[in-house]
Design brief:
This protein has helices spanning 20-29, 32-74, 83-94, 103-132, 139-169, 198-209, 218-223, 226-243, 250-280, 290-301, 310-345. By secondary structure, the protein is mostly helical. The chain has one domain: Mitochondrial carrier domain (Mitochondrial carrier fold, Alpha/alpha barrel), CATH 1.50.40. The longest helix is centred in the first third of the chain and has 43 residues, at 32-74. It is globular. The protein starts with 19 loop residues before the first helix and ends with a helix. Solcar repeats lie at residues 42-127, 137-241, 252-334. It is found in: Peroxisome membrane. One of its GO terms (molecular function) is AMP transmembrane transporter activity. Residues 1-33, 172-193 are annotated as: Disordered.
C-alpha cells in the first residue's frame, strides 16, 4: 500500500549539514541517491503524520476509559472495578469533565509520541530492508526496529505522560479515594476544585519535586517498549499473511490492530500499573525502584493489585489500537495523495 524507497546506508548516507556544496550539487543534478533519500524522508514523514493524526483521533474517542483505568491503577486501596459504579462516582464528584481530566495533555502527548515513534520505526525498518536486501523484515528485525523507535520515544515524551497521569488521577485534589472502595462506604461529596491545566501541573512538578520527577517511571516505561514491539510484530505478521491472499483494507487493519494490542497489553499490564504509580508518587514513594514497587504492590494488595483497572485499560487499548491502524492507513493514503498532487503542480 505504501511506496518504500531505500533508506540511507553508509555507502549512501544522508547529505551532511557540513557539506552544503555537495547538497546543492545533488539537488541541482537530481542524482538518484539524493532523490532516493528525499523520497524516503518524505515517506517517513508521511507515516509519522498519519500515525500522529490517527493517535489523536483514537485517543479522543476512547479517553474516558483511560481515566477509569489510570485512577484504578494509582489507587492504593483495592478499588471496585465495576465500571458503571466508577463512572457514576466520577460524574457525581466532578461532572462530565471528570472523565476527560488531562485530555489536553494526552492529545498533545499522543501526537508527539506517535509522530516520533512512527518516524523512527519507518526509518529503522527501511534501513534494515535496504541493508538486508529484502522486501520484508523477519520477526526479530521488526522487533529490533520497534525497540529502537520505542526507546527513543520514551526518553523524549516521558515528561508529557508524567504530567498527563497527574492530571488524570487528580489525587492531590482530595483525600477521598479516586474510585469507590470495595466496601462501598458512603461519604460526603468532595469539594470541587478548579481542574489544573497542563502548564500549571508541569510547573508544579518542577517547583515541588524538581525536574528529575518529569522522568519518573522511565525504567518501567522502557520495559514497556516491549508492548508496541509485541503489538506491531503480531500486526505485521498477520498483515503479511493476509496480504498474500488479498489487499488489506482499513477494516482489516482495525481488526488486526485490535488483536495485536489485546495480546500486548494483557502481557505487560503490571508494568503499566507500576509506571502510573511512579508518575504520581511523592515523598519517600518517589524513590522506590521498579522491582521494589512490584514487590510492595503484591505484598500489600496481592497479585490482583498489579491488574487494577485492567478491564477499562484493555478495552481502551484495543479500541485505540484498532482505530489508530484504521485511521493511520486512511491518513497515510491521503497524505501521499496530497504530496503527489502538490508535486505535480510544482
Amino acid at each position: 500500500m505504501s511506496y518504500k524507497s531505500p533508506a540511507p546506508t553508509p555507502s549512501n548516507p544522508l547529505p551532511a549539514s557540513t557539506e552544503p556544496q555537495a547538497q546543492a550539487q545533488n539537488a541541482a543534478t537530481g542524482s538518484p541517491s539524493a532523490q532516493a533519500v528525499a523520497a524516503q524522508q518524505s515517506d517517513n514523514v508521511a507515516h509519522a503524520l498519519a500515525g500522529a493524526g490517527g493517535g489523536l483521533l483514537s485517543m479522543a474517542l476512547t479517553y474516558p476509559l483511560i481515566t477509569l483505568s489510570t485512577r484504578a491503577q494509582v489507587e492504593s486501596k483495592k478499588a471496585d472495578t465495576n465500571v458503571v459504579q466508577a463512572i457514576k462516582r466520577i460524574l457525581e464528584r466532578e461532572g462530565l469533565g471528570g472523565l476527560y481530566a488531562g485530555l489536553e495533555s494526552a492529545l498533545f502527548g499522543i501526537t508527539v509520541t506517535n509522530f516520533v515513534y512512527y518516524y523512527w520505526y519507518e526509518f529503522t525498518r527501511a534501513y534494515f530492508t535496504r541493508t538486508m536486501q529484502r522486501s520484508r523484515l523477519s520477526t526479530l528485525e521488526s522487533m529490533a526496529a520497534g525497540a529502537i523507535a520505542g526507546s527513543a520515544t520514551v526518553l523524549i515524551t516521558n515528561p508529557i505522560w508524567v504530567v498527563n497521569t497527574r492530571m488524570t488521577a487528580r489525587k492531590e485534589e482530595t483525600s477521598e479515594p479516586v474510585l469507590p472502595t470495595k466496601e462501598g462506604e458512603a461519604s460526603a461529596p468532595a469539594e470541587k476544585k478548579k481542574a489544573p491545566n497542563t502548564l500549571s501541573t508541569f510547573l508544579k512538578i518542577i517547583r515541588e519535586d524538581g525536574v528529575t520527577r518529569l522522568f519518573a517511571g522511565v525504567l518501567p516505561a522502557l520495559v514497556l517498549v516491549v508492548n508496541p514491539i509485541l503489538q506491531y510484530t503480531i500486526f505485521e505478521q498477520l498483515k503479511q499473511v493476509l496480504e498474500k491472499r488479498r489487499k488489506v483494507t482499513a477494516r482489516d487493519s482495525f481488526l488486526l490492530g485490535a488483536l495485536g494490542k489485546l495480546a500486548a497489553t494483557s502481557i505487560t499490564y503490571p508494568y503499566i500499573t507500576v509506571k502510573s504509580r511512579a508518575h504520581v508518587a511523592t515523598g519517600a514513594g518517589s524513590k522506590e525502584g521498579m522491582t521494589a514497587s512490584l514487590k510492595r504492590i503484591v505484598r500489600e494488595e496481592g497479585v490482583a493489585g498489579l491488574y487494577g483497572g485492567i478491564g477499562p485499560k484493555v478495552t481502551q487499548s484495543v479500541l485505540t489500537a484498532a482505530f489508530l491502524f484504521a485511521f493511520k492507513d486512511i491518513l497515510y493514503d491521503a497524505t501521499v495523495k496530497a504530496r503527489r498532487t502538490i508535486s505535480k503542480k510544482a
